[in-house]
Design a protein that fits this description.
mainly alpha, binds protoporphyrin IX containing FE, binds 2-acetamido-2-deoxy-beta-D-glucopyranose
């Protein structure tokens, strides 16, 4: 969370926030907790809520970026499910692009590769399916899903045709397409898309391709509340993955680089 705090500070340059941050740099508690900032920065929830709401209303994709940031680093309450975030994660003293990408699943992953990548971090198959529902928001570059449009055959043909118009077989690498038809709304549409063979990433469609996760996709597609509950629980669990706490790590003044 401190990671996110420092990124918010550089993103939003909120003066109240910067003030809090300078106090936060001094604080270090030995464990993650929902009340980590209760004495050092008592207003931080309202400060963050205001900053995030302002940022998301200005640019809807900001919510997607923050959610992805949590996945990639480990945090946020968007206009969807909510959960009690455990705060106190500190930043790494190292910055290494290869290491940052190494444990992440590729968009070309098979179902078994997805299952093992998440299992390596302690997640069950159902938790992996729930977390993948994050792809109900956000956008992806053409270069990431091109192969799916031109090589996969488990893709809805009208869906493929419309995507190909914005993502030719060569060129247009950075053209963006939404991960689902309502990319700014956190709902369970992602799972309905999978059932209609409208997953954007190859890895998305692997969750509904005649394998062991089809049944869970159907459950989430028909029950938004179940999805929201499972997603929130899995996000809390994700926030606890090997955190740097206490005096380990550091609090970056600029989240993009080590101090
Ligand atoms: C299941 C395995 C996953 C794979 C293979 C995967 C892969 C990707 C890729 C390749 C992109 C697009 C990057 C780009 O265009 O530059 C993306 C976007 C995104 N991912 Fe994932 N992801 C996975 C799981 C997750 C999880 C667990 C979360 C969060 C809990 C998440 C949240 C997001 C979000 C919100 C975006 C959109 C970001 C934006 O609009 O800027 N993903 N993902
Ligand atoms: C293709 O998408 C349409 C619209 O969502 C859907 O009605 C149709 O069933 C899909 N086709 C397949 C094969 O899933």
């Amino acid at each position: 969370m401190l990671m996110a705090l420092s990124s918010f500070s550089s993103l939003f340059k909120l003066s109240a926030f910067t003030l809090c941050l300078s106090i936060l740099v001094e604080s270090s508690s030995g464990q993650l907790s929902t009340s980590f900032y209760s004495t050092t920065c008592p207003n931080f929830r309202s400060v963050i809520t205001r900053a995030v709401n302002a940022a998301v209303s200005k640019e809807a994709r900001m919510g997607a970026s923050l959610l992805r940031l949590h996945f990639h680093d480990c945090f946020v309450n968007l206009g969807g499910p909510s959960w009690n975030v455990l705060f106190g994660r500190r930043d790494s003293t190292k910055a290494n692009l290869n290491a940052a990408n190494s444990n992440l699943p590729s968009p070309d992953s098979s179902l078994s590769a997805l299952i093992s990548t998440f299992s390596n971090k302690g997640f069950t198959v159902n938790e992996m399916v729930a977390l993948s529902g994050a792809h109900t928001i956000g956008q992806v570059r053409c270069s990431v899903f091109r192969k799916r449009l031109y090589n996969d055959n488990n893709i809805n043909s009208s869906f493929a045709t419309s995507l190909r118009a914005h993502c030719p077989s060569s060129g247009g690498d950075d053209n963006l397409s939404p991960l689902d038809a309502s990319p700014a709304s956190f709902d369970n549409r992602y799972f309905n898309n999978l059932i209609n063979q409208r997953g954007l990433l190859h890895s998305d469609q692997e969750l509904f391709n005649g394998g062991s996760t089809d049944a869970q996709v159907r459950i989430y597609a028909s029950n938004r509340a179940t999805f929201s509950r499972d997603f929130a629980n899995a996000m809390v669990k994700m926030g606890k993955i090997s955190p740097l706490i206490g005096s380990n790590g550091q609090v970056r003044t600029n989240c993009r680089r080590t101090n």
